[in-house]
What we know:
By secondary structure, chain A is α/β, with parallel strands linked by helices. The first copy, chain A, is 39% helix and 15% strand.
Amino acid sequence: MFEWFKGYEENRVLKELEDLLSMDIPYSRVLSSMCTYPHPIAVKAHIKFIRSNLGDPGLFPGTAELEKRLLVMLGELFGKRDLAGYISSGGTEGNIQAIRAARNMLCTCRGNIVVPESAHFSFLKIKDLLGIDVRKAGLDEEYRVDIGDVERLVDDETFAIVGIAGTTELGQVDDIKALSKLAIENNLFLHVDAAFGGFVLPFLNNNEFNFRIKGVCSLVADPHKMGMATIPSGAVLFRDSKYLEVLSVETPYLTSSKQFTLTGTRPGTGVASAYAVLKHLGFEGMKKVVLECMRVTQILKEEVESLGLEAVIDPVMNVVCFKCNARKVREELMKRGWVVSCIRKPEAIRCVIMPHLTESAALEFVKVLKNVLHSL
Amino acid sequence: MFEWFKGYEENRVLKELEDLLSMDIPYSRVLSSMCTYPHPIAVKAHIKFIRSNLGDPGLFPGTAELEKRLLVMLGELFGKRDLAGYISSGGTEGNIQAIRAARNMLCTCRGNIVVPESAHFSFLKIKDLLGIDVRKAGLDEEYRVDIGDVERLVDDETFAIVGIAGTTELGQVDDIKALSKLAIENNLFLHVDAAFGGFVLPFLNNNEFNFRIKGVCSLVADPHKMGMATIPSGAVLFRDSKYLEVLSVETPYLTSSKQFTLTGTRPGTGVASAYAVLKHLGFEGMKKVVLECMRVTQILKEEVESLGLEAVIDPVMNVVCFKCNARKVREELMKRGWVVSCIRKPEAIRCVIMPHLTESAALEFVKVLKNVLHSL
């Protein structure tokens, strides 16, 4: 019989968990992640709702009502009060659902979509899942999608085009207005992946990515990234409830009769934590957090440029990449306890300045980077 | 500007959450759900890992190690020590991934699968997502899949067959041995949906559903159901790592280079809570919980039968359904604060006896049911 047959005392198990937890890297030296420590109120809200299951909303009418209230707030934030949607496991589920809804609206199992070359790798999963062709449009010199190239790739089989509001690599924002024009002219579904940018751009007074732009049919934005909610918390939002309808299946043994989510059982924690942060901080509080991230980003950019590294683009949000011998630099930084990631085109290290990265930590990072550059 | 522009004090927000939470139905009177209160140690473990993101495992090597240890325990529980797999958002993700892996192994975007008529509605989502034909095999008089019917439906285009270990409606277990024989003879992928039964059957000394059966290629089992873990926690398990390989996409900007999960960002909480429960209770402790659920199930069955209602099948696990004017009975029970669900073939009310349902609650339920039956 196996070793855990008789079980272990609670304290021994919790001690084992603590020991493993202590191996995880604290965020304070992480510049590679689009996640961060959840806000304290997010943790409090999360713990309250730890038992709730939105997969069976009739049992949890209070949690279901909370999700409705959150959707109203997100509608206000993203430019259309009466959005359809739900809180998902994150941006990948949202991207899957948006493209699936677009395909189902056209009642076809065929076709293609056009995404920017800078699209997140979740579109590779979508290609495989849905068995569709995912065409990649090139980028312009500022690493925004080349609208001419999107237009060139669209054909009779195309059912959707995608724009990114906050690319994973550079934090760049595509010209959603131009994509919208193209979508409307060609009767295409336009999906906006704002998984990262959704909780950054509105606080920088940039709304040229959301439902204020007419052609935008769906948008994903992740509270568990810059929304400082707990994981998992992603918002998948549609301009019209007809898009949810085409995702529905019948659910005979639940309190509801239909389900349009990708997953079945679904935590209420992401709803509670996202709601709590937005409601507590308000637009003004969120703006403060975002502006502070932007301030540290600017400092980091100037300091690293003074070391002789060039930023790939002037930061649009709290992401900045520096051209260098990236793999080597990354590895040396890692040895010294700092985590950045790499991008490939152009070869550069990538720094995401999340709320956990203070100004003094950023300056400490620059010192270490200086040593690394000298040592190479 | 919208109402939450300036934000609200923490206490006011938390009070609003409490008010909504109090509208949720307590599990103590719920017989319709396959979820339950998480075990106290699950909650403690969950809270410890509330910040961890297994979508980026290089940042969380401790949490990643914990997932490995959990997979070893699950391997021991399910009859093969060196399983491949991961902890997912739940059974639906697991079913999607298993069928997707089966399809990808055959390098085709076409084909069909054969599932029992009793399969969970997640297979409707899979049909839509993957654009495959999902053929439904009939059931025998005990509501197990009819093996002859499965055989009849299999053709050259079939790439997988599915067996259920613990059907959602009746808790019935298909003849996985016979399906295994069929799968091996026809060179088919066999997936077992043990989302519910996975954490019941081994503790009833029934292992004729897992990797001990040669033809079983994949299995899902949900710790967030009878494993008493927190939501979300689902295990998707493969006999061989080659099945994970065909699900992988490249992940350029993470600490890992490939990702085989369906979602991207992924909580560590489900790993921690599932591990803590299994390790703390051990096989023996889990068995106690399951046997107590079975004891209450048996009492409920006898008491309700004494009211003149017939059980659809003799309970195989902690699920029992009673033939009656189900929609009406369900509605009347709901008015009196008790929740059951309905099944359609045959028309019956369905009771799932989870660990939250005590013997005295079950007897109280029987009293209320008696009143309802008299009132009709």
